[in-house]
Each structure stands twice: as structure tokens, then as C-alpha cells.
Amino acid sequence: MAVENKPLDAKAHAAIALHRFGFGPRAGSLAAIGADARGAIMAELDRPNAGQISDDDLLNSGEAARAAFDYRQERKADRLAQRAEREIAQNEANKAAQAAKEAQMAQASAPMNGAPAMEAKPAAAAPATADAQPPKPNPGPGIPQQIYLEEAKARFDSALGADIGFAERLVWFWSNHFCVSADKVRSVAGAFEREAIRPHVLGNFADMLMAVESHPAMLFYLDNARSIGPNSIAGLRQSKGLNENLGRETLELHTLGARAGYSQDDVTSFAKVITGWSITPLKQGERGGEFIFNERMHEPGAQTVLKTSYDDAGYEQGRSVLLALARHPATAQHIADKLVRHFVADEPPQTLVDKLAKRFLDTKGDLKEVSKALVLAPEAWDAPRTKLKKPSEWTVASMRACGLALSDIRRIVNTLNLLGEPLWRPPAPKGFGDDNAAWMDGLPERLDIANQLARRVGGLVDPEEMADAALGPLASPETRQALARAESRPQALALLLMAPEFLRR
User: Fold this and answer.
1) In the chain, where are the structural domains located?
2) How large is the average pLDDT for residues 377-383?
3) Among 260, 324, 429, 488, which is least packed, fewest CB within 10 Å?
4) What's the angle, vertex CA 197, arms to CA 193 and CA 200, rounded to 5?
């Protein structure tokens, strides 16, 4: 499935721009940016509010957490009420059965001297129990799932509607870099991306880092909300203690990288620094579910992280360490490597990694400048197209190529479940894999999805025209020949969506 590299003309540059840096072409996209593909990407980055989602109907994280909490409380109350009703019904049934038994015993022991025995009244029918009630209608998805689906729809609407989609692709990259799991924080996974990632995706890395590590979704996902300093007021009064999850993942995954030379002592010290970074209990009204710094949980005293001592300044102690991590050369190298690995190649060109790391350090983590450096670098365009698109990117690219709008978000959610990249549900804190090996086994399932999409639009789309619109000069003679030999339009469209040139960035 190797894709031959050829000298790029303007239209080929446009196709590379859309497939490598965006979500693939829509009808007319190649012509729209063909004159200056690099310039079109740069213009997208400079557009006001690039990468943002503005929707007043979406809940912020606190509102979402409280809505989910209230829903669970109501369900708990309903279950308790239903149990009470079942117990009452069972008690009534037991009383009726006991009355019937006593009446039978009284009849059996009546005098036999001619006096008529008292006729026992028939026992009242036992009240119907809950098990005998007709099944209740399906109420549909619960509140947490409704919030999750609304956030998912906003995310995919943004990707499907983007002119190119580089800013949105950056959002998806950073959301996977700083991942949380909807398996644990379903109602706030979407709000986390909107609040901690999107506002900073073209801003400063230090600001994004602060927003992420102090966000309730991350604090809950990596168990820092209950991390207690051993010598804090709370730690001296109860057995619960320090949790190092967030401290470790911040160093290993979010900033320095696994091979940066930090020690276990650094992990422990940093975990102590961020004790007290917690969440307001959901029972506490309108502030429930929001970030709080709890001084009673915070480990007192100075802490040493990466050979630097930080005085105890409460919440500010944590901010100081995060700022130092954000500006560390190892962080620049780690972030640069991941960006190039994501957009360009599993084996990143070292010259390109070094360029991005230098730009990161020179601009003190200006992510727009780092992103522009990626787009302007010749290595980012010249690298062979061997990088498989992730399932979510391929799904969006397929819908854009077919001209399909988003009608039911559950269809996309189910598709991503099938393809092994469930939305906001990575298998571990390191996020979904970002190399070909992680996704190669899922190609047969992509063929099933391609066939479904092709059947939906097969009668409306000409395969050759779609190949021109979706791939342009990237379409190889072998791919065009396969389309021409297809037995039907749907088969040709499915072949196009599974062509090497379409599957790869």
C-alpha cells in the first residue's frame, strides 16, 4: 500500500494540505485553496476564534457535573421509592395470605354440634407487585449520556464544517495528549475539551497546561481530587493519603516525557505540591463540581522538583512548578516529537522535530507559532504519505468526501466504537496510539463502514468525480483503474474510501 511520491504541483499541494493537516477535501476544496495551500492553512490559524466552539446550549463542566449528580440522585430516589413500594406490596400480600390462613384454621376448628360454622370470607387478592407491572417505556439516554452526545455533535459538526480543519485537528491532537476518559467522567469529557483545550490550542502551552491540570475532569480522572498531603491537617486526621497519579502523568506524558531523567522523588514531591487541588463537593449547590484549592489537604513545606526548591505558597506552589515544566527543554522536545509523529510520520524527521522544539523554546511555548513552523517546514510536505489516518479522522474525511451531513451523532459514536477509537475513551492516560501499528488491524472494519457509506450515496455520486474532488492528482493510476472496473457505483465508492491515498495523511 505504499504511495509513490511525485513532484507536487499546486493542486497536489492542496490535496496534501487537506489530507495531512486537515480533514480531507469537500466538493470544491482543492480548487478553493489550490493557488496557495500553505497560505490557506496559515490564514485559518490567524482566523479569530479558530478552534473554538460557541454554543450557549452546551453546559460548562460544573453545570454538567451537577446535572449528572442530580440525575443520579433522582434515579437513586426512584429506586428507593420503588423498593419501598415493593416492600409495601409484599407486606400486604403477606398479610392477606396470613388472614386467609387464619380463616381456614378458624373454619376447620368450628364446633360440630349443629351450629353453622362461620363461612370464611375469601381472601382479598394480593396486590400486584412491581414485577407484575407492565414494562415501563424506554426513557431514552440518561442525562450524562445526553450531555455526552450533545458535546460529541458539536465536535463533529465543527470538523465536518471546517474549510481545511487544521485548527480542529490540533484540538483533537491536544485532547488526546491531555486525555481524560468518558468511562470515568462522561458528563464533563466534552466540557473539558472546550474549556481546557480549545481556548489555548493556538495560545500558550503554559496556559493550556494550567487549565488542564486544574480542570475537575483531570483531577477526578487521575484521582488528585482526593490526594491528601501526609502532613496536612486532613492527612494527620485520617488514613487517606497521597495519590501520585496526576503528578506522574504530568511529568511522563504531559510535559517532560518518559526519558527526561526525572526521578521517583520528583514524582512524589510534585504530587505533594498539587495536594489540595480538588473539586467542590457536588452537594454544595451552585459551586459543586468546580475546582477548589483545599488548604487543609495541601502538604505543607517546601518541595524539590528537578533539583529546584519551591517554597510552600499554597496553590501558587503548583503553578510555579507547572510553569517551569512548561518551559523545560525536555518538554519542548517531547511536544515537538509528538506533533511531527502525529501529522507527518511514525519515524519523525529529526530536523523537523528540532525546528519545532527550537520554535517552542524561542517563543516560550507559543503554540500558534509552533503550528506555523510545522506548516512552513518543507519536511512536513515532502515526507512520504505512509501515515494512516486515525479512525475518527478517516470517518470525517469519508463523510466530507461523500457530501454527508451529520444527521444522528449516535451513528458516528457507534462507528468509532466499532473502529476501536471510542470518543473520549482512551485505553490509558497516554491516550490513543499515534502510529500505524495501532490502527492496522482495524482496516477490515473500515471496509464495512465504507460499504455502508457507499450504499447511502452510491446512486447520487459519480466515483470518478468524487476521486477528482477527494484526491485530485494524488489518485494513482491503479486506484483509478480499480474504480473503472468496479461492478457498481457503491462498490467503486467503497474502493475509493479504502484506497491507500485516501486512508493516509
Assistant:
1) 329-382, 387-503
2) 96
3) 488
4) 155
